[in-house]
Amino acid sequence: MNMSVKIAGVEFKNPVMEASGTFGSGMEYSEFVDLNRLGAVVTKGVASVPWPGNPTPRIAEVYGGMLNAIGLQNPGIDVFTKRDIPFLKQYDTKIVVNVCGKTTEEYIDVVERLGDQPADMLEINISCPNVKEGGIAFGQDPKAVEAITREVKAHAKQPIIMKLSPNVTDITVMARAAEAGGADAISLINTLTGMKIDIHKRAFALANKTGGLSGPAVKPVAVRMVYQAAQAVKVPIIGMGGIRNADDALEFILAGATAVAIGTANFHNPYATVETVDGIRAYMERYGIEDIRDLIGAVR
Fold it and tell me: Which pairing describes strands 160-163 and 185-188: parallel, antiparallel, or unpaired?
């Protein structure tokens, strides 16, 4: 039985990874999960300099998921390359580094500094606010998506995955823009913008007022967007959004995703990733499927 998948020439032993920002760089979770069993570990977002993130409170539980306004807090590329990359190199898994920035130049700086690092792919988080354009996210303007993809691709030594925001009118426009800019793959969805109000305090639950909604509540939206993107572009897709188990993951694969990433589920079940790997294998055995690639985009 073959569970391996290939994205931009990089072979993953299985299609399961975790979503950036929900796993650190795997250090904490390595107490629960054998990282060797994952197709890849996707790191938390890395910027050119340390980011303090947003003021607290910055997490709120909501029906069917959670809101977060962490603000991409991270220690910066220097600490990351000294601490996190050496840790991950101990394991037989692919390393996908998530990159964030507030200007095109910041993204390029990180990408260039990762050029000589043993990272297998770079995931570019374009839901970051573009400070030069008044704070609108790079990923909400197709021209900006294509432009930043082209710039990053020109400087990257590794294949690049563009992580798309769902907070747009038509996801296929953004997917095509990333493909036109030279993306090797796309990942979706990032969080949906949401809000929670504490009726007793008569105040916003998050200091930032709004936050990113993730968890089971977003899964139907995510599956729909992955399907639409798969019909619109030829590059491989990494699907995510509310995946808790193998059943959820298989929906994304059948919709057209080559691989899947598990995010919020890690917070309440640290074994979610490896359980999903086992569940996909059991599904393939049950239905006599020899190659997982036969499932990718099987629903049309």
Answer: parallel
